[in-house]
Design goal:
By secondary structure, the chain is an alpha+beta fold. The protein is 60% helix and 20% strand. It folds into two domains: 359 residues, Outer membrane efflux proteins (OEP) (Up-down Bundle); 111 residues, no CATH class.
């Protein structure tokens, strides 16, 4: 009865692993006709990556700085047209001496109160055109020089953003492959430890080993299940990261060919890479251009106290047409009332040529404050440029050392996998004859699968560090991704792992 219960327990423990293997095989069976490659992801990201789209919009906005700051130096033409319909109503009460009997030979003047009412409707037309041209404007000239640097700055920043996008695509893609290799190692470890647990339980049942060996095997197996679950979740998360770049859903990608070889950077001299970076790094170029733009801005602010000379031509035309009615009414003398309508036709034209000299004498300290602000902003930009240059040199040296180290590290990790396999086989053989205990076997198995994980990390670190070295040197281009794409194996697919069947063993 006791042996039967143990067999049932083993069956329950192995059931989740069987489900996982079945789900994994089902996932591989549902493969797409063609897995996505690195170049496929890059091409999709070019059209759909929101970060690159935002960078592209910022670039198109930034290149307008040259046109904006050149405008004050070019002729300014303005036109003004106004059409107006006027309704006039005026009423005036007055008292004046009036000849109340104009038919008599003798004037009979009396003070009479009378009302004058004027009404009318007219149509007004105003036409104005002005042409002005800066003859001498030092702030505008230095502003234009600043605008040219800002346009070049926008171009350098966009180039840096494009390279950054290539790194993001490569990182997301190879993180998927990294996560898959780690998951493969975790699944292999889980299968091996499940088999080891089963063998240990069988040996315990026939009295060949102690119960502590069963407990050790069970603990190692449980830990491997947790590692496999973590690796599976990491793979799904990294597949989802591809969707952030492309806006699409990805099920399968192509892995590296088994014959992929690492190679040291060319040229091998670290100083050459530093020279490349100082000459071509787009972030450093942008920092230098920003410093130059800030310097021209400081010169523009320092020139604001200078006089400006402007020439202008203007033309103005004004017309008014309509009728005006004037009515005069006398109190108690209706026979003297007058009512007349006057046609109105006014046409006024004026042209002028002028030269204006503007001299800022005192502006409440504004010009001095602007000058001090611009000068200190220029100092800040210069210091940031120096900082960027030093960081670029340091990053280039660090990445070059990393790539050189990665070449040796990949080789060492690969050999460590071979050595770990041999050590595991020897330890298992020793365990069979009683010279090694179960802890030694479990430790050897853990060492093997850790070596496999370390090898995968070293390989993908080498690829990404190589791309980052080219980026910091300003040499990264789509051609580098195309070359990496040829190192992928389209006949093999790295697929998502189904989430079903990922539960741990029942106790």
């Amino acid at each position: 009865m006791k042996r039967s219960n143990r067999k049932e327990s083993r069956g329950r423990q192995l059931r989740p692993l069987k489900k996982l293997i079945a789900a994994t095989l089902l996932g591989f069976g549902a493969m797409q006709a063609q897995a996505d490659t690195l170049w496929d992801i890059y091409m999709q990201a070019l059209d759909n990556d929101p970060q690159l789209a935002a960078d592209r919009a910022a670039y198109h906005a930034g290149v307008e700085a040259k046109n904006q700051l050149r405008a004050p130096l070019l002729p300014q033409v303005n036109a003004f047209i106004e059409a107006k319909r006027r309704h006039q109503y005026d009423q005036l009460n007055q008292v004046a001496p009036i000849d109340v009997d104009p038919d008599e030979n003798v004037d009979q003047l009396e003070l009479v109160e009378f009302l004058t009412r004027t009404t009318g409707t007219t149509q007004d037309r105003t036409y104005n055109a002005t042409l002005s041209q800066a003859i001498f404007d030092a702030p505008a000239w230095f502003g234009y020089q600043q605008g040219k640097k800002l346009t070049e700055l926008a171009t350098a920043e966009y180039s840096a953003n494009q390279q950054d996008m290539m790194i993001r695509v490569a990182t997301a893609y190879f993180d998927v492959l990294r996560a898959f290799d780690v998951l493969e190692a975790a699944v292999s470890e889980e299968k091996a430890l499940a088999k080891q647990l089963e063998q240990t339980q069988q040996r315990f049942e026939v009295g060949l080993t102690a119960i502590t060996d069963v407990y050790d095997s069970q603990a190692a197996y449980d830990s491997s299940v947790a590692r496999r679950l973590t690796a599976q979740d990491s793979l799904l998360s990294n597949f989802d990261a591809l969707s952030v770049l492309t806006g699409g859903y990805h099920d399968e990608v192509a892995p590296l060919v088994e014959s992929f070889q690492v190679a040291p950077p060319v040229p091998a001299d670290r100083a050459d890479w530093v020279d490349f970076a100082l000459a071509n790094n787009f972030t450093l170029k942008a920092s230098r251009l920003n410093a130059e733009a800030a310097r021209y801005n400081a010169r523009a602010a320092a020139s604001e106290h200078l006089p400006t000379l402007t020439g202008s031509l203007s033309y103005n035309k004004f017309t008014r047409n309509g009728d005006v009615r004037e009515r005069v009414m006398y109190e108690n003398f209706p026979e003297l009332e007058q009512d007349e309508t006057f046609p109105l036709d006014l046409d006024n034209r004026e042209s002028a040529a002028a030269i204006s000299l503007n001299i800022p004498i005192y502006t409440g300290g504004l010009l001095s404050a602007n000058r001090r602000e611009a000068r200190n902003l220029s100092f800040q930009a210069q210091d940031l440029r120096n900082l960027t240059e030093r960081n670029t040199i340091q990053t280039t040296r660090t990445l070059h050392r990393a790539v050189v180290t990665d070449v040796s590290r990949v080789s060492a990790r690969q050999q460590a996998v071979v050595s770990a396999k041999s050590a595991l086989e020897a330890t298992q053989a020793g365990y069979e004859v009683g010279t090694r205990n179960i802890v030694d076997v479990l430790l050897a198995q853990r060492t093997l699968f850790q070596s496999q994980t370390d090898y995968a990390n070293a390989l993908y670190d080498y690829i990404l560090n190589t791309l980052s070295l080219k980026q910091v040197a300003g040499l990264l281009s789509p051609k580098d991704l195309q070359e990496l794409d040829t190192m992928l194996n389209p006949t093999r697919h790295v697929s998502r792992v189904a989430e079903a069947g990922a539960a741990g063993p029942s106790k």
